[in-house]
Amino acid sequence: MKNPLIITLIVLAVIAVLVFGTIYGTYNQLVALDENVNSKWSQIDNQLQRRADLIPNLVETIKGYAAHEKEIFDSVNKAREKLLSANTVAEKAASNDELNTALGRLLAIAENYPNLKADANFRQLSDELAGTENRIAVARMDYNNAVQAYNTKIRSFPTSIIANMFGFKEREYFKTDEAAKTVPKVDFSK
User: Fold this and answer.
1) Which of 21, 53, 73, 136 is a plausible cystine mate for 47, CB 3.0–4.6 Å?
2) Closest among 101, 77, 93 to 45, alpha carbons compared
3) Where, by residue number, does the polypeptide cross the bilayer (predicted)?
């Protein structure tokens, strides 16, 4: 009679260890994936901040050549402020789109001022801004890949059970607004 009881206890102990090990391992994987998403978001935030820091210098350089373009400078500054005050992924994406449109209009001004295009400060700032735009694109792609891996993991069975037990929720992708995909129109006939 002792043998079946001991065997049953050993089997139950092994099952308990396996279940606990699975929960423990899955939880740690989810934490690692969640932290990876946070890290990738941080990189987007860093690059958006870098761009926001470059913009005032670019605006001031262009202002010297195109003083009558006040409306465009105001729209760039307003869009920059929105980006800096945005908190959520959706707010950052929307304000980023608005800033992209305003910057497109600002850089289009440079085309009408040959002396500005030849200015060393303008060229350096433009190059830095272009490099930052590339970094933002890469950071957004890395972030969205991390979100995809995380969301896939928490929605997969049996991980979804553990994810729900510990409150892991789907993360939001960094998406651009459809309106941001249209090329800004610049009218110099005014």
Assistant:
1) 136
2) 93
3) none
CA neighbor of 188 nearest in space, from 125, 99, 113: 113
Measured in residues, the chain has a length of 190
Structure tokens at 178: 């459809």
Please state, in angstroms and rounded to a whole number, the distance separating the CA atoms of residues 81 and 172.
Answer: 23
Instruction: Give the Å distances, CA to CA, from 9 to 2, 17, 18, 20, 99.
Output: 11, 12, 14, 16, 65
Q: What is the dihedral of CA 57, 93, 152, 15, to 10 degrees?
A: 80
- 86 CB-side CA count, 13 A: 23
Kindly report, residue by residue over 138-189, the tens digit of the pLDDT. Answer: 999 999 999 999 999 999 998 999 999 999 999 999 887 665 555 445 444 4
Report whether 159 contacts 33 (CB < 8 A): no
174: left (phi over 0), alpha (psi -120 to 50) or beta: beta
139: its two tokens: 């950071």
pLDDT digits (tens, 9 = 90+) for 30-88: 999 999 999 999 898 888 888 888 888 877 777 776 666 677 778 888 888 888 888 88
C-alpha span between 72 and 59 (Å, rounded): 9
In the chain, domain spans: 4-166
